[in-house]
């Protein structure tokens, strides 16, 4: 699980774009660039929030259920933080209990998605925002977190439907952000530096999962 304390806005890294222009149009080009930057960054003015569509999801077929805003931080990924990783979790509980704790402002953690045993996908935090799921600020900022219903010591919880649905979800995330489909970029919570968690556990079949992700990644949209 991730940290509750959110960093100050000054910690954000806002990228600067270069514009190659001829000397005769330098002034006009600079004006266009400045106007474009202002249009993109207007919402960063104190007291102004970037427009969001209520109930919008990033993965087709997912159901939206909002996590408490105490369990994530508003961002504009990948513009301010690049996304290059998917982190796999197991809830250590039921789907309903996971939803409940992610909606609890005292919990201090939540993942972007939960995949149920029957393959149903729920999104609780937008991918452009930073979820507190990894227990490591850097990893939170650069990753999408996916929880899976069940317990690490019960292999029967890891159903075919869950593996297949999760693999399709991870494949779409990787395609969206050009993330390599390998074990350096798709990792378990246990592999995050500094974490004390063991999920997804020894029963999680990484060979099977990565094969399914690769197949879904190359399948026609």
From TrEMBL:
Gene Ontology terms, MF aspect: N-acetylmuramoyl-L-alanine amidase activity
Leading EC class: hydrolase
Enzyme Commission (EC) number: 3.5.1.28
Biological process according to GO: cell wall organization; peptidoglycan catabolic process; peptidoglycan turnover
Stretches that traverse the bilayer: none
Domain N-acetylmuramoyl-L-alanine amidase: 72-201
SMART domains: Ami_2
Xref: InterPro entries: Amidase/PGRP_sf (IPR036505), Amidase_domain (IPR002502), NAMLAA_amidase_2 (IPR051206)
Catalysed reactions listed for this entry: Hydrolyzes the link between N-acetylmuramoyl residues and L-amino acid residues in certain cell-wall glycopeptides
UniProt keyword annotations, A-Z: Cell wall biogenesis/degradation, Hydrolase
Identification of the protein by name: N-acetylmuramoyl-L-alanine amidase
SUPFAM superfamilies found in the cross-reference section: N-acetylmuramoyl-L-alanine amidase-like
């Amino acid at each position: 699980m991730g940290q509750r304390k959110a960093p100050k806005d000054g910690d954000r890294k806002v990228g600067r774009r270069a514009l190659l222009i001829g000397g005769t149009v330098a002034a006009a080009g600079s004006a266009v660039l400045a106007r474009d930057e202002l249009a993109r960054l207007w919402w960063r003015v104190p007291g102004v929030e970037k427009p969001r569509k209520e109930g919008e999801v990033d993965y087709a077929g997912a159901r939206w259920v909002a996590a408490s805003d105490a369990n994530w931080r508003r961002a504009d990924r990948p513009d301010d933080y690049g996304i290059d990783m998917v982190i796999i979790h197991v809830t250590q509980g039921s789907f309903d209990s996971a939803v409940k704790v992610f909606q609890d402002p005292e919990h201090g953690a939540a993942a972007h998605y939960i995949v149920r045993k029957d393959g149903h996908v729920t999104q609780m935090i937008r991918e452009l925002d930073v979820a507190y799921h990894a227990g490591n600020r850097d990893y939170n900022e650069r990753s999408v977190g996916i929880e899976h219903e069940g317990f690490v010591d019960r292999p029967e919880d890891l159903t075919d439907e869950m593996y297949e649905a999760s693999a399709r979800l991870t494949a779409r995330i990787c395609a969206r952000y050009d993330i390599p489909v390998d074990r350096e970029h798709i990792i378990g919570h246990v592999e995050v530096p500094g974490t004390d968690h063991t999920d997804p556990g020894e029963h999680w079949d990484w060979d099977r999962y990565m094969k399914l992700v690769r197949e879904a990644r190359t399948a026609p949209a």
